[in-house]
Amino acid sequence: MSTTSKFPAAVAGARERTGWVGWIVFAGFMLIMIGSFHIIEGLVALFRDEVFLVGSKGLVINVDYTAWGWIHIVGGTLAIGAGAGLLAGQMWARILAVVVAFASAVINIAFLPAYPVWSAIVIAIDVLIIWAVTVHGSEVKDG
């Protein structure tokens, strides 16, 4: 009997996938969803800034909503790309996912006075994304 039939994963040097891979799929879809939300929030900041509860002077960082809008649009686009890369099992996407989720959380901390509940929800999801990718990211196939 050949050794490849007894221990195919050990011989190939591959790790066996476990049920925890679902967390990476979750993180990928959450990044795509969070990215979409950031883009929507950015468009609102650009075109309907009167929707926000606080004027730009009441934010943690004093910038106008046009700048916030562009930050959200660029960050959202990066998040969607990282989420798609995670679903494809790319190593670069795991790194980008952690960076984008961290940046999203920091941006939403600064945006708390304008949208407190929404920002808190996004921060919680960002923390789950970082946890999923850093703890279980190695179980996804590198492409």
List the helices and strands and how they pair.
Blueprint: H1 3-6, H2 8-12, H3 21-47, H4 65-87, H5 91-110, H6 116-136
User: What structural class results from the helix and strand content?
Assistant: mainly alpha
Overall number of strands = 0
Radius of gyration using CA atoms only:
19 Å
**Helicity range of the residues?**
55-70%
Secondary-structure element pattern, one letter each: HHHHHH
- What are the low-pLDDT stretches, counting only 5+ consecutive residues below 50? 1-5, 7-13
Average pLDDT taken over every residue: 79
- CA-CA gap between termini: 31 Å
Number of H- or I-type helical stretches: 6
The dominant shape is elongated
Percent strand: under 5%
How does this model look, in words?
It is elongated and about 50 Å long. The chain has one domain. It is mainly α. The protein is built from 6 helices and no strands. Helix 3 packs antiparallel against helix 4, helix 3 runs antiparallel to helix 6 and helix 4 packs antiparallel against helix 5.
